[in-house]
Amino acid sequence: MEKKRQIHSSLKVLLVSDIEKAKKFYSEILGCEVTDWWVVRDGFTGLAIKLLEASDPKEVRPNPPAAGDKHGFDLYCYVENWNSLDELYHEFNEKGAQIAIQPWVDENNGPWKEFAVKDLDGYCIAFGGTDGT
């Protein structure tokens, strides 16, 4: 018997220091649809974030790096193929996104290609995937 699908999608909740500045960043730099608190690109099964303003900016705490890593990741977005990944990288770079990790290929895993950006509060959002073949 096939198990019924119960979870359609999930999203990340980010505590931000200034919600208006964050909404502008996600709209203008990352090309998301933005409402009073939702940040969505490619629907709720794509990049989906709920923004909440911190009562104190000190409460905003991006993830620290894991053991042996240089960057902590707060969100990871999978892409369909490397063409889509390259298009996103060029779009974000042209709009002035802070590129935390330049595109690189891990030949031992996939091969897998990824890059990452940082938002205004230092949250690291990575994008990656296989070449789609």
From TrEMBL:
Gene3D superfamilies the record matches: 2,3-Dihydroxybiphenyl 1,2-Dioxygenase, domain 1 (3.10.180.10)
InterPro entries: Glyas_Bleomycin-R_OHBP_Dase (IPR029068), Glyas_Fos-R_dOase_dom (IPR004360), VOC_core (IPR037523)
Entry-linked PROSITE patterns: VOC (PS51819)
UniProt xrefs under Pfam families: Glyoxalase
Ranges where the VOC domain occurs: 6-130
Protein name: VOC family protein
Organism listed in the record: Mesobacillus boroniphilus
